[in-house]
Amino acid sequence: MAQYGISAGQSVAVVWDKSSPVEALKNLVDKLQTLTGDEGQVSVENINQLLQSAHKESSFDIILSGVIPGSTTLHSAEILAEMARILRPGGCLFLSEPVETAVVNNSKVRTPSKLCSALTLSGLVEVKELQRESLSSEEIQSVREHLDYQSDSLLSVRMTGKKPNFEVGSSSQLKLSLAKKTSPPAKPPMDPAAAKLWTLSANDMEDESVHLWPCGRTGEREVKGTGELPAQVGLWKLLPGRRFPLRQLPLPRDAGLQTRRAGAPEQ
User: Which residue, among 103, 126, 115, has the nearest Cα to 156 in the 3D structure?
Assistant: First the structure.
């Protein structure tokens, strides 16, 4: 029993079928009850009733199936999936099953590699073969009677598989840290009247004698003592030796657009 790693307080399920000798089953259950103790539990399930037994998920630490001496149990994909469901995360399944070592088409008995694949597809991990041995004369007779199968290339193989440390099909929410992007400050709406003043005609755009000059109401080029432009600029037409004012334009109220005097340090 040491090969199963059973200890006190564990829940163990023993799965049997019609090929399992009754006395051998009783002896196995007695030994398991001694190992698990009063705080443990040993459940005995017929493989044909396992799907209807309505066990809750993660009910057993260890499941033993087909390991009763003399058993020739075959495990369908549905049975293996149910065993994986009722195993606790980290729990182990140990099973024995007759296998076919020859290449036989449409054989009801799997090869060792196909049995290993079936265990993996059921959701188990770390699947491996523990032992391979010849069938006894009683087991060969049991295969003929209970499985209606006859072959000279049969062996008995013992395999194990472990349930992952999480429920099969479970999900977990990932915690993602996403910095919220700050949107740039909205630009203030443009005054329609100011936009109209700042719109130049096609003639103004093509006239090289038209220039923008800073000026106040008295015509100053800058605010005295500050180096800053006044609140308005003028649209002037330059002629040789003279300039004519065409339009007075208010400057936008934006500090970033204020022009400093040439050579003045930036703030």
Answer: 115
Q: Strand ranges (DSSP E) for the chain?
A: 11-16, 41-46, 60-65, 87-100, 125-134, 154-162, 210-214, 232-239, 242-250
Helix axes 77-86, 112-121, angle to 10 degrees: 50
Burial 140-175 (b: 16+ CB within 10 A, else e): bebbeebbebebeebebbbbbbbbeeeeeeeeeeee
Per the CB < 8 A criterion, the answer to whether 146 and 72 are in contact is yes
How many CA atoms lie within 13 Å of 90's alpha carbon, on the beta-carbon side? 4
| Residue among 124, 134, 135, 123 at smallest CA distance from 159 | 124
Cα–Cα distance for residue pair 115/101, rounded to 1 Å: 12
With tokens 């000026």, the residue in question is 215
Q: What's the pTM value of the predicted model, to 2 decimals?
A: 0.63
d(CA 234, CA 220): 11
Alpha carbons 96 and 129: distance in angstroms, whole number: 10
Q: Six-digit token pair at 104? A: 């036989």
CA torsion through residues 78, 83, 89, 92, sign: negative
**Span 180-212, pLDDT tens digits:** 666 777 777 766 665 655 565 655 555 565 555
Residues 6+ apart with CB under 8 A from 133: 155, 156
Other CB atoms within a 10 A radius of the CB of residue 4 amount to 16
Q: Which two tokens stand for residue 259?
A: 């022009």
